[in-house]
Design goal:
The structure holds two protein chains of two kinds.
Chain A: E1 3-8, H1 9-20, E2 24-27, H2 34-45, E3 52-55, H3 59-71, E4 76-80, H4 82-87, H5 89-97, E5 103-108, H6 122-126, E6 133-136, H7 140-155, E7 163-168, E8 176-181, H8 184-190, E9 208-209, H9 215-247, E10 255-258, E11 265-269, H10 273-286, E12 291-296, E13 298-300, H11 304-311, E14 316-321, H12 332-340, E15 348-353, H13 362-373, E16 385-387
Parallel strand pairs in A: 2-3, 2-4, 4-5, 5-7, 6-7, 11-12, 11-14, 14-15, 15-16
Antiparallel strand pairs in A: 1-8, 6-13, 10-12
Chain B: H1 3-10, H2 26-38, E1 42-45, H3 50-53, E2 69-70, H4 77-90, E3 96-102, H5 103-108, H6 111-120, E4 125-130, H7 170-175, E5 181-186, H8 190-202, E6 208-213, H9 217-221, H10 227-236, E7 243-246, E8 249-252, H11 263-266, H12 277-309
Parallel strand pairs in B: 1-2, 1-3, 3-4, 4-6, 5-6
Antiparallel strand pairs in B: 5-7, 7-8
Helix pairs in contact in B: 2-8, 4-6
The chains are: A alpha/beta, B alpha/beta.
Residues 21-22, 25, 27, 50, 54, 131, 135-136, 216-219 of chain B line the site of iron/sulfur cluster.
């Protein structure tokens, strides 16, 4: 029987981890992720979760412990945010390049400076090319579902890559919503035990792990890693579909389209802003505007074909970025989407907003759509625009 | 030769022949002795440093060890082993998880993560081979380099005469972690070394640490055949006293009642050849002070144990 539970995003994540039965969890607390670690600690204390938990002295060690545990054959989980992720970068890059199927939630938070603790996916987006699969979710239900799916994807023998499930700090981590929990037995069946043989530290089966590697072999490792990322473009939708068979919920696999069929212009979103964007689209549809919404759910591997198919027949599109790409004069998602549409001459706008936990309101997104509808088709290289909250722009 | 050493020497060598350490390298000897003592139910972590560089972790599709071996990062040897050990414990397997790390990976970059693993009591055997610097990358200084040492980053010139700070008393730093087993050992005293490694292995759980001083012929400037003698002089001058701490109880092994003057040791290494009498005296003063402190801990904790027993 499915159960309904009202939880915040961190508890949704913790419940998903509990049902996924990891062997080893190592984590270091950081706002806004801390609650998630506390929930997991409580489950272990209450004997509801049979995992070895290590309360480490840094995120660098959290990832390092998971590498050791994964190399010894265990299923592993951790979570972090922003500065913690930055501190973890050294072993972070190494986890996918060792092909270890670690799952890590990233509770997105802005990067310092200026000093901040509020939301924004700048942390994980900046690390998009470090070899992990990255999934960005929009609601607490999707946090739960994506974490369960993440273990399946990561441990798939055609993939064997770590997965980040990224959710917006505070907007999701501390927002309370009802979620539906599948029966634990169903999840156990969906997630068969992890039994690695590709890389293992076992005295009864001696292997040298990561000896000094000359360039020609290193290139072979990189090629195979990139191929595994591309295979994930098939595996992620399959896993989502199978999960939908279990729970009745599909998140669209790589991308999620909303009222896109006959849309003339489209908004492109990532993460929790998608909820507000859906309302903005509905409001403008009520006014007769033909507008749709494309949510990028998986950023790595990048679903270039899906993005191309979704947007190639549109008159124009706008990408909303809650992040910046220094040196491009735009947001990261915009450059990614533009790259996927590089053969097409479709005008696009880029909006940057919601940084450092600022609100991205329905009104802002409606204004963006209205601007898009009136866009002069010659203005392809329009610079990015900033979504400021007028009430707050007087703050000093 | 002690019975134990005799017996250990008969065991399989778990490190491949033909690794490319320098002639006279006593770190290679230390590693072979350590692994013979611990045996094949072990996994071995060797972070970047001399023993990684000379091929113990292998090259390409080859390996340099007969146990599972891997390259942790310079700064995460201990927690990687902690994780592996946690998983083995879940599976009910008793595997020695062993770090063999240089002083750069231990005293400098890896200290935070190692100290964390020690505080948590993770069940690791951590052996630091202290050759006083980053020797495989061309002899740069570390926090464990002795004062006055010439290194490639603390050169000797008109204005400066080698490293300006004293060697960190790292064995004492680890002693203060209150570990179930901690020792300072020397390759010049192999029976003592082997006994300590075996003792560390016999402690059923918790973080176990052994600090071995390994004078480096290539980087310190002495000839290959002096390798063991220089290591022995470090002990005889009390520059590197051999001691053991078990659950807070300090013991001096081979106590040196009248240590030789430290210049007998320093004068054997070219890296100290520029030292003036005053500079040598300064090192002597610190060696004496540290040795007195160690002696005080030995008598102090011994009586503490006696008092609590009574
Ligand atoms: S540099 Fe020194 S410690 Fe390193 S392999 Fe050579 S002799 Fe041994």
């Amino acid at each position: 029987m499915n159960r309904i539970k009202v939880v915040n995003g961190n508890e949704a994540a913790a419940l998903a981890v509990k049902m996924s039965s990891p062997d080893v969890i190592a984590a270091y607390p950081i706002t806004p992720q801390s609650q998630l670690v506390e929930y997991l600690g409580q489950y272990v204390a209450d004997d509801e979760l049979d995992a070895s938990m290590s309360e480490v002295e840094s995120e660098h060690s959290a990832m390092s412990i998971l590498q050791g545990a994964s190399l010894a054959g265990g299923r592993t989980f951790t979570a972090t945010s922003s500065q913690g992720l930055a501190l973890m970068y050294e072993p972070y890059f190494r986890t996918p390049t060792l092909r270890l199927p670690v799952v890590m939630a990233i509770v997105n938070r802005e990067m310092i400076s200026p000093q901040t603790v509020w939301g924004g996916p700048q942390d994980s987006l900046t690390l998009r090319d470090a070899g992990w699969i990255q999934i960005y979710v929009e609601s607490n239900q999707e946090i739960f579902d994506a974490i369960v799916q993440a273990f399946r994807i990561a441990e798939d023998e055609d993939i064997l890559l770590p997965v980040n499930v990224c959710y917006d700090g505070f907007y999701l981590s501390h927002l309370t919503e009802p979620i539906e929990l599948p029966p634990a037995d169903d999840v156990a069946e969906f997630l068969p035990p992890y039994e690695p043989d590709h890389i293992l530290l076992d005295p009864d089966d001696v292997m040298s792990v990561d000896p000094l590697t000359p360039g020609h072999l290193l290139m072979e490792y990189r090629r195979r890693h990139m191929e595994a990322q591309q295979r994930a473009l098939q595996v992620i939708p399959q896993v989502d579909e199978e999960y939908a068979g279990l729970t009745g919920r599909s998140w669209g696999g790589l991308t999620y389209s909303y009222r896109m069929q006959d849309a003339e212009v489209a908004l492109v979103t990532l993460g929790s802003m998608t909820g507000a964007a859906r309302v903005a689209v509905d409001n403008l549809r009520d006014e007769g505007r033909k507008v749709g919404l494309l949510k990028i759910r998986v950023l790595r591997p990048f679903p270039a074909t899906e993005v191309l198919c979704a947007l190639q027949d549109k008159r124009a599109y706008a990408v909303i970025d809650r992040n910046v790409s220094f040196g491009w004069g735009s947001g990261i998602l915009h450059t990614e989407v533009r790259a996927a549409l590089s053969g097409k001459n479709i005008p696009s706008l880029n909006y940057i907003g919601g940084l450092g936990g600022e609100d991205l309101t329905v009104q802002m997104l409606q204004d963006a759509i209205n601007e898009l509808v009136q866009l002069d088709c010659e203005a392809v290289d329009a610079p990015c625009r900033w979504l400021h909250n007028p009430q707050r722009s007087g703050d000093r | 030769m002690s019975d134990l050493l005799n017996e250990v020497m008969q065991r399989d060598d778990l490190i491949s022949p033909g690794i490319s350490a320098c002639v006279g390298c006593n770190v290679e000897l230390t590693l072979r002795l350590v692994m013979k003592t611990l045996g094949p139910q072990s996994i071995l972590a060797i972070p970047p440093g001399c023993m990684g560089g000379v091929g113990v972790v292998g090259y390409g599709a080859t390996t340099g060890a007969k146990v599972p071996v891997f390259f942790p990062l310079l700064d995460n040897t201990a927690p990687m082993l902690s994780g592996a050990r946690l998983q083995y414990e879940r599976e009910g397997r008793d595997v020695n998880v062993v770090a063999f790390a240089g002083d750069g990976a231990t005293v400098d970059a890896g200290f935070g993560s190692m100290s964390g693993a020690a505080e948590r009591g993770d069940s690791i055997i951590y052996i630091c081979y202290d050759n006083e610097g980053y020797m495989n990358t061309g002899f740069q200084r570390s926090g464990s380099t002795a004062k006055g040492s010439w290194t490639s980053t603390t050169p000797v010139g008109e204005r400066l005469g080698g490293k300006t700070q004293h060697k960190m008393d790292f064995p004492m730093v680890m002693a203060m972690h209150d570990l179930p087993y901690m020792a300072a050992a020397s390759v010049a005293y192999p029976q003592d070394l082997v006994r300590k490694v075996q003792k560390a292995q016999q402690v059923p759980e918790g973080f176990r640490y052994i600090h071995v001083l390994n004078p480096c012929p290539n980087g310190w400037g002495f000839s290959a055949e002096e390798s063991i003698e220089v290591a022995r002089l470090a002990v005889q001058t009390a520059f590197h006293p051999l001691f053991e701490v078990i659950d807070g109880d300090f013991t001096l092994d081979r106590p040196v009642s009248e240590p030789k003057k430290v210049h007998h040791y320093l004068s054997r290494c070219r890296k100290f050849s520029h030292l003036s009498e005053v500079e040598t005296e300064d090192i002597q003063r610190v060696v004496d002070r540290r040795y007195r402190r160690l002696q005080a801990l030995v008598s102090g904790t011994g009586s503490y144990e006696a008092a609590s027993d009574g």
